[in-house]
Amino acid sequence: MGSPDYITYGVGALVAFGGIFGYAKVGSLMSLGAGLVFGSVILYGGTLTSADRRNFLIPFLASLVLTGVMGARFVNTGKFMPAGLVATVNLLQVARFGYRFIAE
Fold first, then answer.
1. What pLDDT digit, counting tens, does each position of 2-43 carry?
2. Over the stretch 42-75, which tens digit does the pLDDT of each residue have?
3. I need a labelling partner for 85 at 20 to 30 A (CA). Which of 36, 62, 79, 103 fits?
């Protein structure tokens, strides 16, 4: 077993807590559902990459989707919070896994 992938765990927790916060702040069930689903998928991906650092397809794809969706929301609204933050963090995650794919 490899070392824990704290970065992926952190991204998953950020997404999940962001969904909970969106629901608490404005009552958005869409934020709650999407945040919990995508956060859970990324957290699960963290367990996969912790066991084998080459097993990053699931968190990579989840982060890629979130980068696209939240990036589009950021472009449309111009507001960094929360869409720009989520898009940026997930773009960094996609770049991290992309580098890992190329390097290995």
1. 799 999 999 999 999 999 999 999 999 999 999 999 999 999
2. 999 999 999 999 999 999 999 999 999 999 999 9
3. 103
Nearest CA to 10 among 37, 34, 45?
45
Assess contact for 94 and 81: CB atoms under 8 A: no
* Sequence-distant (≥ 6) Cβ neighbours of residue 38 within 8 angstroms: 15, 16, 19, 62, 65, 66
CA distance 20 to 24: 6
Question: How large is the C-alpha radius of gyration of the chain?
Answer: 14
* CA dist., res. 90 & res. 14, Å (int): 10
Of the candidates 91, 17, 3, 100, which has an alpha carbon nearest to the alpha carbon of residue 46? Answer: 3
Q: What is the pTM of this model?
A: 0.93
Residue 61 in tokens: 């794809």
